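We now fix the convention by which a protein and its fold are recorded. Think of the row as the fold of the chain written in a discrete alphabet. Here is one such record, which you should read through line by line.
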Amino acid sequence: MPQLGSALHSMADERLTVEIVDDDKQREKNEMKTADSTLFRRTISRFASGVTVITTSHGGTNQGMTASAVTALSLNPPMLVLCVNREAPTHEAISTADSFVVNVLSKSQEPLARQFSRPSDDKFAGVETYTSALGLPVITGCLANFECSVTARTTGGTHTIFIADVRAAAAYDERKPLLYYAGRFGRLVLAEDDLRDLNRLEKAESGWTSDWFRMA
């Protein structure tokens, strides 16, 4: 039979735990404020993401920009969504060409992310590329590449939302991703258990990962 002192101590621990949880909930509730552009920028920066360079060609000139607003839309047919600020120089090129390449950067390509994020007359200086079937520049050494054709577009705030079919793709499993979080570039480090899970997933040859990249 448990001692009264032990029982009271246990009850006190439980009450303390509840109070801490309730305090955390209240604190988080108080943090939730009406979003403006400043708060939204700070908050969305906490969403860790991969880093891409979007490339296209217009009038015989290659153009590109660093972007993170890229996401998968559909598995069958393969489609993705790209959001581009209408004031970005690359916006007009994508709108005219109706095609683009999403180059998913590997961890060694941080300099490329910086290069394509700055204004320049020749962002492709020193960048190794090859020409895709659609005549678009594809950056080599990436984690993955997607060649896309625009099928629809709409507007949202300051951006155009391009909906595109994925015409061709390639993935390179031996390379590691470049990440962006809270205004800084970073690297992905997997624990051993995560690596085993990833290997099992890749060997399963089913589901989103294997089917998606089988297009290559």
